[in-house]
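Lecture 7 notes: from sequence to structure.
We start with the chain below.
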Amino acid sequence: MVAMRAVADEPRELYERHAEMCKVFSDATRLMILNVLRDGEFGVTAISERLGTPLGTVSPHLLMMKRQRVLSSRKQGNQVFYRLANPRMVLAFDLIREILCEQMKQESLLARKMERGRARK
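Predicted structure tokens for the same chain:
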């Protein structure tokens, strides 16, 4: 039998930080930024170009992700370069994407079955 852990055994601050971290995953632009930064460190302009998104849209997301300690940055001259603060972040990103892909495949199979059922009538 698996031992059950009491939620109260973990500090509330951990849950609060977890919730704050999850806010990063609540916006498509931020998710795309994470995906770009899995390949390494990039300047703001390069991130913007890779996303095909204006600098004015990308910059606030980068700052928010830095405040949440998801990204680290360094300045070189007048350029700012961003990277993942912890490369393991992409493990969470990939796991969620895998789950979503599985769900979408299941939904697609269900839709096809329903279409075949309608066609038979």
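Points to note: The helical segments are 12-22, 28-37, 44-51, 55-67, 89-120. The radius of gyration is 20 Å.
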